[in-house]
Specification:
globular, 11 helices, two-stranded antiparallel ribbon, mainly alpha, 237 residues, 3% strand
Length: 237
């Protein structure tokens, strides 16, 4: 499996710098995402869900930095544990009001951090970081845009095991998940017919799991489910 970042001169220079500088880049990126969130929270305080989805998408892309910079698995897992701990504290202390003030009980931020740690621990030792990246990016972009579109344009509602959803949001989840999976897999596998088939299966599974979003559990099930489907189907096809 090829690395889509191979041949990038900048990559070679960044992966050779000390780990603490690499970590600084990640911290800087996350700091920028949180800064944007706070600015949006002040500009549009009545739309906390939109602010949260901005952080959701922005922070999910940190997995690309971890992949690009070839972070050691131990560093990635430790960072995820720290993020999960901060997320837990934020539910009891006003640490991240712009993220958690969504008007409903959710452990989504905590599950999001846990999913990153689990995927890094799973796929980094296998030297298959593409599947960890795919799972997180499907969650970041698919669920992030589905929530935004569903809230803004969701006119056709339905309920699934008590969870209120919209067809507009679910179709967005399916379409974005397919595009993300197709782009990531094409980048490492090349343009093959199997790639489209796997991307389609990922989109279906991710959308089904996203409908079961009780307490934000989809932030765990969607990344893990998407990565697992991609990994096992790629081995078979």
């Amino acid at each position: 499996m090829m690395n889509p970042f191979q041949g990038w001169e900048l990559l070679g220079s960044l992966t050779s710098i000390p780990p603490w500088w690499q970590g600084g880049l990640v911290v800087a990126w996350l700091g920028l995402v949180l800064l944007v969130a706070q600015m949006l929270h002040r500009v549009a305080p009545t739309s906390p869900e939109i602010v949260r989805k901005t952080v959701h998408i922005g922070s999910g892309n940190v997995i690309l930095l971890a992949w690009w910079l070839n972070f050691p698995a131990l560093v990635g897992v430790a960072a995820a544990i720290l993020a999960a701990a901060i997320a837990l504290l934020s539910y009891f202390l006003p640490i991240m009001p712009s993220i958690n003030s969504v008007g409903r009980q959710s452990w989504g931020t905590f599950f999001y951090a846990v999913s990153i740690g689990v995927l890094i621990a799973w796929f980094w030792p296998l030297e298959q970081p593409v599947y960890a990246a795919l799972g997180i990016l499907v969650m970041a972009w698919g669920d992030g845009l589905a929530g935004a579109i569903g809230q803004r344009f969701g006119q056709h509602k339905y309920q699934f095991f008590g969870q209120k959803k919209s067809w507009e949001g679910s179709l967005t989840m399916a379409a974005v998940s397919f595009v993300v999976a197709l782009l990531v897999l094409t980048g490492v596998e090349g343009s093959l017919w199997q790639t489209g088939l796997v991307a389609g299966a990922i989109a279906l599974v991710a959308t089904a799991l996203e409908t079961l979003s009780f307490l934000g559990i989809d932030n765990l099930t969607v990344p893990l489910g998407s990565a697992a489907v991609a990994f096992f189907l790629t081995q078979i096809l």
